Amino acid sequence: MQLAGRNRAQIFESEIEYRSIFDISTSAQHVYLVHSLAAALDKLKLGLKAKVSAGTATDLEQQEYNVLEHSMSKHFVLYVVGRLAEELLGTKVPDLKKWIGKDSIVRPDPSRATDAWTSVLDAIMPLLAVQVKELGTPMMLLAPKIDYEGRRQDEGHCHSIQEADRRAIEANTRSH
Question: Which residues are paired to 146 by β-bridges?
Answer without folding.
Answer: 152
